[in-house]
């Protein structure tokens, strides 16, 4: 009796397992049919997606051949960038905090009134000059534009004004 009982259990187990595998395969097929009619078809028609795919599969380099038109191989012209004037707090957080946040290389700490007083006494024009063109003092070195050559002069001045306001 034990052998027939085991056989019945095994047959029932295999039947249930087969049904579950069949359901899983059916769900996969239905999902692929739905995807083919919706997102996949729309993505292939999308011009942005097509450009992204093209940029990913483009060759890394191209060869110029003597005696042939190689104009298509010329590097694209650089797009002019328009620098914007940033507010003082933004300039401070992007560049100045590296030294003035902790007093690195003799830089007066942000908000330290005693350290800023003699510098403020020299006048804003001097502070602007040192910030824009760099300064080598007794206590340390100030790189031009705080090491951020991409900042506009007005952005650097805004950063100086922000630190001076906190140091007064």
3D structure, described in words:
The protein is elongated. The N and C termini lie far apart (98 Å). By secondary structure, the chain is an all-alpha fold.
- Topology, number of strands: 2
- What is the helical fraction, as a range of percent? 55-70%
Low-confidence stretches: none
The secondary-structure element order is HHHHHHEEH
Q: Helical stretch count? A: 7
Any idea what the radius of gyration is?
34 Å
Which keywords apply here?
single chain; mainly alpha; two-stranded antiparallel sheet; 7 helices
Q: Would you spell out the secondary-structure blueprint of this structure?
A:
Blueprint: H1 2-37, H2 39-45, H3 47-57, H4 88-100, H5 113-121, H6 124-133, E1 135-136, E2 141-142, H7 153-167
Antiparallel strand pairs: 1-2
Describe this structure in a few short sentences.
This protein is mostly helical and 168 residues long. 60% of the residues lie in helices and 2% in strands. The longest helix is centred in the N-terminal third of the chain and has 36 residues, at 2-37.
């Amino acid at each position: 009796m034990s052998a027939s009982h085991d056989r019945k259990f095994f047959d029932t187990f295999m039947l249930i397992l087969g049904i579950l595998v069949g359901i899983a395969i059916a769900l996969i097929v239905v999902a692929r049919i739905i995807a083919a009619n919706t997102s996949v078809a729309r993505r292939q028609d999308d011009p942005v997606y097509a450009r992204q795919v093209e940029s990913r599969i483009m060759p890394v380099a191209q060869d110029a051949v003597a005696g042939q038109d190689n104009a298509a191989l010329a590097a694209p012209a650089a797009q002019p960038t328009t620098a914007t004037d940033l507010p003082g707090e933004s300039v401070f957080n992007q560049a100045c905090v590296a030294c003035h946040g902790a007093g690195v290389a003799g830089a007066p700490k942000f908000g330290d009134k005693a350290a800023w007083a003699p510098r403020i006494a020299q006048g804003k024009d001097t502070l602007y000059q040192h910030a824009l063109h760099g300064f080598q003092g007794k206590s340390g070195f100030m790189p031009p534009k705080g090491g951020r050559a991409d900042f506009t002069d007005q952005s650097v001045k805004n950063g100086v004004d922000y630190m001076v306001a906190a140091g007064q």
